[in-house]
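Example for tutorial group B:
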């Protein structure tokens, strides 16, 4: 298995129990999580040597996040300690026609105020085969955007594959701001992951024939932008999740992959996910599954099927982390969605 490095922010998620609303809550469940941290947890579970780079306060609340990563086998050697706070976010789980809701409290977090002096990227990337980051990290601050670029440069110095999950967040920046930062960073990227909104807001590509709010996710509409993105930025592989948001409790889920070398497209099987336990982290589970698949599977198509199955399973698990094994993903990808008790 490979050494894989991820960089980003890990936060503490505070959620009312079950499907309670914020204003009903008298207590909150705590779930550590964040895009790249979620990816690292999945990859460690698949047997890889996963490292997560971030900056966290030295106090006990910051230690909650460090302990959570260690519990799932993620290496924390290159986490810098400093700053005054860990980012928080509040997540209310939707149900049926009531959508979920997220409220961020992450301003001035330790990683957003980090500087290059807080990290030794050359040491962190020694022997690394893959580096993964997401568009959330450079959106945090100008300093975090600089760290992202420096990490990409360190990854390229050791010949690592670089992947990005575009992950546009309109509560962090505008499309114009996103494009001004993200498009130059694409020069370092080999594998690009994102949905229809990410591609448009971060890079300026919009698919035809897509309306996720009405459950319309025609894969044909994505093929054109996958080709254009690969041509413009030199991506070797482009993948897009195709979510049909039928309700907060019911989604259709599949994905499209494009191999730029062979010009081949792959469309995965579709999963009908009902009911959804927790969709937070579903995209991260897909990214981790795709990385594992591209490293270990004989074909990009099989890698895509592993990624979609992994992310479908994540929708059944509370919290940000995808607590599944390779065997469990392989079982679902192989067609066994019966959910029968394993004895």
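The residue assignment follows.
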């Amino acid at each position: 298995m490979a050494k894989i490095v991820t960089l980003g922010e890990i936060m503490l998620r505070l959620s009312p129990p079950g499907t309670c609303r914020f204003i009903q809550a008298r207590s909150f469940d705590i779930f550590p999580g964040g895009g790249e941290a979620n990816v690292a947890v999945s990859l460690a579970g698949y047997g890889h040597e996963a490292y997560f780079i971030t900056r966290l306060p030295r106090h006990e609340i910051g230690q909650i996040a460090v302990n959570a990563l260690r519990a799932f086998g993620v290496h924390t050697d290159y986490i810098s300690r400093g700053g005054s706070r860990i980012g928080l976010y509040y997540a209310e789980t939707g149900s049926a026609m009531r959508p979920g809701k997220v409220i961020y409290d992450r301003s001035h977090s330790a990683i957003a105020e980090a500087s290059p002096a807080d990290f030794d990227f050359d040491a962190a990337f020694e022997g690394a085969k893959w580096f993964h980051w997401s568009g959330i990290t450079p959106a945090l601050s100008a300093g975090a955007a600089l760290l992202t670029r420096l990490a990409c440069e360190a990854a390229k110095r050791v010949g690592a594959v670089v992947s990005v999950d575009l992950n546009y967040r309109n509560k962090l920046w505008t499309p114009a701001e996103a494009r001004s930062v993200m498009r130059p960073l694409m020069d370092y990227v080999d594998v690009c992951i994102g949905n229809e909104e990410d591609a448009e807001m971060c890079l300026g590509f919009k698919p035809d024939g897509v309306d996720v709010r009405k459950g319309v996710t025609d894969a044909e509409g994505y093929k054109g932008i996958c080709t254009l993105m690969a041509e413009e930025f030199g991506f070797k592989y482009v993948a897009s999740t195709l979510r049909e948001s039928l309700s907060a409790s019911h989604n259709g889920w599949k994905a499209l992959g494009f191999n730029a070398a062979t010009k081949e497209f792959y469309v995965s099987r579709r999963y009908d996910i009902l009911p959804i336990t927790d969709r937070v982290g579903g995209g991260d589970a897909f990214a981790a599954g795709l990385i594992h698949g591209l490293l270990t599977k004989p074909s990009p198509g099989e890698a895509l099927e592993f990624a979609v199955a992994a992310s479908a399973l994540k929708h059944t698990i509370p919290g940000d982390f995808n607590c599944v094994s390779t065997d469990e993903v392989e079982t679902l990808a192989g067609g066994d969605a019966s959910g029968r008790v394993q004895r």
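The chain is about 35% helix and 25% strand. Compare this with the pattern of hydrophobic and polar residues in the output above.
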